[in-house]
Structure formats: C-alpha cells, structure tokens
Amino acid sequence: MSEYYVCTGCALLCDDIEVDIEGNKVATVHAACRKGVARMKGCSDPMECTVDGEKAEVDTAISKAAEILSDAKNPLIFGHGNSSSEAQKRSIALAKKTGAYIDDTSSFCQGPIVEAILQDKIKTCTLDDVRHKADVIIFWGADPSNSHPRHLSRYSYFPRGKERQRGWEEDRTAITIDVRKSDTAVISGDNRFYQIPMGGDAEFMDALVSALSGKVPKTSYGFDVKRILELSGVLKKAKFGVICVGLGLVYSLEELEPLFKLMNKLNEVSDFNLIPMVGQYNMRGFNHDLFEETGYINRVKFNPETGEAEHGAEQSVVEALRNRSVDAALIIGSDPLSSLPLSVSRYLAEIPLITIDPCQNLTATRSTVTIPCALGGVEAGGTAIRMDGVEIEMKKIVDTDKLSDEEILTRITEAI
Amino acid sequence: MGFGQFLAAPEIKLKIVTYRDVFQNTAQETSRFGEDYEKLSAVIKLDPKDMVKLSIKEGETVVVKNAFGKVVVTAQSSGHEEAHQGIAYMVNGPWSNALVPDETGGTGVPKFKDFEATVQGSKGEKVTGIRDIF
Amino acid sequence: MASVMEIYQLLPKTNCKECGKSTCMAFAVDLLARKVKVDDCTPLVNDAKHKANYETLSEMFASVKNVTETGLIVHDEKCIGCGNCVVACPVNVANDPLGAGSGKAPTSDKVIFKVEDGVVKARNVQECRRFGENKILCVACIDTCPTKAIEFV
C-alpha cells in the first residue's frame, strides 16, 4: 500500500485513496466514502458494444458513429462531466470538425457560478485554503453530507489546518441555509441552521446585505430579524469565510446579482470566498477547456463553415432539444434520459444516438451505437479539475481491454 | 372487495422539492437497473397529514402526475420534525425528472427542484420500472 | 438494547453464584455492560428448561456483536463513510495529526477510526477516551455523524 489514487465519485477528487487489488479488480478501497467506493469498484452492468441493438466490434461501432455524425447537419455532443480533460479536448475538436452543438451538465446546474468565477466576477479560493484558514463556512442550498460526503471532514469543518489548530468546536462555525433540514443542517446545529422558504434565497441575501450595512433586515416571509442580525454579526467577525454554493441556491436565483451584491458587501466588512459544489468529477474541467478554446464555458454551437463558436441559451442542450434543432447526438459519460426532464429528453429517443460510457444506462437503451469505455480514474488515467479549480492528476489503477473515452473520440474524429 | 374501490381516491396538489441522497447515488453507481436504485429513487416523502388526506399508509404506492409525466412511486412519511403540508420531497432521479416541466422561459434551465404535481393513492399499482418511465 | 430488568427476567434468577457474581441481578448489570458473556451463566447454557431464554439472550447480544469493549457500535448500513468521526476523534488527532487530524486518510496504525470500503471501522478501542481508568464521556464521533451510525451502549 501507500500508493495514493484519486476517487472520481464526485468533484472533490479525493487523492488520498489506497486500494487493494485482487485479480486485476479493485477489491478493497480505503478512505473513500460509500459513493466513491461504489464508483471505484465499478458497476454491475457494464455497457456492451452495440450497433442497432446487436453486439458489434468496436471498429464497426466507431465507423457507424462517425457515419451518424457526418450525416447529421446539427449534431449535439453532450455529457463530459465524467470524462478526463484530455477526452473533453478531443470532444471539443470533434464538435468543431462537425459543426456541432457542444454542452455539458453545467448548462443546467453550476454553470453560472463557474462562469462568474472564470470571468473574475466572484472571489474564490481553493479547498486547501478552506482547510487551513476558514473559520466561517456557509453551506447554501448544499447538502455535502449527501452530495460530497467527505467535504466537511477533508476540508471545510472538521480538519485541523495551519491557522485552524484547535478543532472545529473552537475554530470553525458551520452555517447551513436551506429550504429543508438536511443532514448537513443537523451537523451545523439548530442555532446555525437558517430554514428559508422555496425561492426565498435572493431575499435572504438582500436581508443579509441590509444587516451588514447596519439596516433592519426585512423579508417578505418574516424571517426572525434577530437571527439575521446575529448571523450578520458572525459573518462580520469572520477572518476567512467561504460560501459553498449548492444547486438549491443556483436553481433558486433567477440572476446572480443578489449573490454578487452579498459577496461585495461581505468583502467590504470581512474576507469571503465562494466555491461551487460541483457534482460530476470533471464538470469544471470541461468549463475550463471550452473557455480556453472559445471564451465560453458551455452552450456552444460551432459554425460548420467558419468554425466560429456561437453561444447563448439557444445553444444550450435543453433549448436545442426543446426546439428540436439537433438531428443526432453523441452522449459521453452522461445519461440525459435520466438526468434531464423527460419532457425535454424525450426528443433524444427520436434521433440517432451514440452513447459512450463504462456502464449501461437509460440513454444507451435508446442508442443506435453504444461504445463502452474505460472507467476514468480506475481503468484509465488523465487529468481533471476539482470543484475549486485545482488540477488533479489521475493514475490508472487496473488494466482493461476497453479503450479510454479519449481514444474513442480520437478514432471517431479520424474516421470522419 | 370493499365499497372503496368505487370511490375515486382523494387527490391533492403538492409542490415537489427534489434533493440528493448518498445511498441512492451509491446504488446508481452500482446499477441504474438494479432493485436498490428503484427502491431508493421511486419514492415520495410526504407530510403525515397529507398522507391522512390521501388516506394512504406508509409504503403504499401513489400516482404522481402533472402535464409533463406520470409515475407510480412508493409513499413514505418524511420524518421531518417540522410540518410541511403541501410540500413533498423526491430524490433527484429519473422518476422525479419524469415530472419536471419543460418550461424554461428560454433560459436553458428547467425547474428541477420546484414544480407541482398531483398525488393520489394508486390502489395497489406497482411502482413504475425504470425502463417503463419513458 | 434491552434494559437490565429485561435481561434479568431471562436469567435463571436462582442467585447460584456459579458465575462468580453474588446475584443474577449483578450478572445482568455486567452482561449489559458487556463485562461478562451470556455463556458465563452455566445453568442457562446447560439446563434445557432455560433453552428458550438462552437463545433469546444469545440473539440479543449477537445482534450487537460489533460492539467493542467500550460499547461502541458502528451501524454499517447507516454509515456513509464521510470520515467525520475519523477526523473529529481526539485520539485520531493526537495519534495522527498530519493524516486523520488534517482530514486525510489515516497514516498511523494507532487511530481508532478508519474508513474501509465506504464504512468506518473501529479498532484500538482501548485508546478511546470512554475507556479505562480516566474515562470521560467524549461524544466527538457521535455528534459529528450525519446519519447517527455510531452509538455507545
């Protein structure tokens, strides 16, 4: 033992994982959480290589995939959250070559936050900074105990750090703001849990800004003024604060303005940073890659003639499907028939589909072509970007006959 | 055969809030087609008073539907200390996504966590299988 | 877990002293504290008329067979492997400040908690602050558990 691997169960990318291997399989996983262990041990129903529902050779499947993409006028390439950065770059190149729409799950989750960070509109820090320095940690619309189980123990609440030597009871304050009493809220404690109504986040932010400015904080839902004032007192006194933004907050805000205002105010009176609670292990990597290539983090359509990137809501996976403006799709490391509203994804089943994934999923059951790939971080190495923007190197743990997603994309691109 | 079968089961309109659950997520990593994933995903968590209104008991199945879809899932009491009548919780997954509206106001972001649906006792219907959601 | 009275009711109630205790009630108290085993009561084991009670008691204590000497139980099915207890446990911090104490995978063999296959495993429990001469009622692992997977009986 003592060789450390990276867990790809979520975008925490825990890099302190040891494994015992038996017969080229991961037999025991040390230090990873329950969900991470399930990821690293692999699924019980791997995807098969198929064309039109019949078992096929990988070469045949790759040619068929290339044919579908060349025949399409407006193909869509979607997924990427569970792909290495190397594969994502191949995907972007393939989209450029085929004049495709390209998007990822950030398009309907953490995208706006990651975009604001990459455009320097929001102050951010690394998780290591959080461990070493943070004394006030806010989980807003986030429940890491379920979504990122080791968040509190590795970085945000329990560990000792350079400037946090005395343990969580004395050194740190965890605060949860949410519409329901989540497991994380329970750990924060009743007096540090602020339960707000659905959609009440923006108003709560405005109220906090008022309180931090010495005004009376008011909400239309009559939140206890004393509690808001008390909370603003805690935030004011913070030496190094961090807001961990979950999907609950992202979905509740119609625009990010209230969040910008709160962050600005907090940084007038104290020092606050923000980290998005990214779900899939390399969603942020895709945002960085596409940003580097086009200046946009997601929602791009490449012009087939000029190769120029068009960007906007119209180019998002959801609108492209709603408007039925795509005529074929390549899905990589994602299961949109599970993760998108059925009312939106239903259309996918009407067009030629290609799925690349290690495991069988709903989208695969409706696909013309399915190509199994190596499991990232276990059967294939590469790089990925953690939720806080830090690049993490993943090593291969066991060998496989399967191609990596990077290799599959390269071969499809070459075949076009 | 009771008289009850001739009466329409009571139906109520609820706000659905979706959330994440680490056990369900673990089951998803192992198999999307497994029993565990269905057992942990095809569930709606209700306020006990709403369960009384629906005249259903813990573990019975209910039909949850709106203009966008319909699924049969198992009803459970939420176990939350605070009452939340009119609000029900569903874990994020294909069953909840079957009900998420396609309306986005052109933003590209559906309302995954906040939508309405009606809930009604199913009179013993089986939970919708993952392959049948579609 | 059953109460002392419930355990006592299942014992022979003869105060035979074969176990070394002065009364069956004293045995029941020690049994609950896990200082003695069900099998230490010879009449209960050997006498056919106590068979049903013996089985009930054995089952009662078998169901918590993961109990360590300090009475610590990890309910595997509830544990999510978050490692909060691993990092919060004062003994883990003292014995492995740069590993477990700093939020990382334990690097010392002297830690009490360690996550293996997504579930926390307790070892070296004699080091637990709730154990031994100077024991204190430490609750670091219980309070930090999001799913109430750790219990002391």
TrEMBL record, chain A:
GO biological process, one term: respiratory electron transport chain
Keyword check for Signal: no
InterPro entries noted in UniProt: Formylmethanofuran_DH_bsu (IPR016457), Prok_molybdopt-oxidoreductase (IPR050123)
Gene3D superfamilies found in the cross-reference section: Dimethylsulfoxide Reductase, domain 2
GO cellular component: membrane
Domain of life assignment: Archaea
Keywords noted in UniProt: Oxidoreductase
Coiled-coil parts of chain: none
GO MF assignments: formylmethanofuran dehydrogenase activity; NADH dehydrogenase activity
UniProt-recorded name of the protein: Formylmethanofuran dehydrogenase, subunit B
Organism listed in the record: Methanolobus profundi
Biological classification of the source: Archaea, Methanobacteriati, Methanobacteriota, Stenosarchaea group, Methanomicrobia
UniProtKB/TrEMBL annotation, chain B:
GO molecular function: molybdopterin cofactor binding; oxidoreductase activity
InterPro entries the UniProt entry points to: Asp_de-COase-like_dom_sf, Formylmethanofuran_DH_dsu, MoPterin_dinucl-bd_dom
Domain Molybdopterin dinucleotide-binding per the UniProt entry, residue ranges: 15-114
Protein name: Formylmethanofuran dehydrogenase, subunit D
Organism annotation: Methanolobus profundi
From TrEMBL, chain C:
Keyword annotations from UniProtKB, A to Z: 4Fe-4S, Iron, Iron-sulfur, Metal-binding
All copies of domain 4Fe-4S ferredoxin-type, residue ranges: 70-99
GO MF assignments: 4 iron, 4 sulfur cluster binding; metal ion binding; oxidoreductase activity
PROSITE patterns associated with the record: 4FE4S, 4FE4S_FER_1, 4FE4S_FER_2
InterPro entries: 4Fe-4S_dom, 4Fe4S_Fe-S-bd, 4Fe4S_Fe_S_CS, ACDS_complex_subunit
Pfam families, per database record: Fer4, FeS
4Fe-4S domain span: 1-59
Name used for this protein in its record: Formylmethanofuran dehydrogenase, subunit G
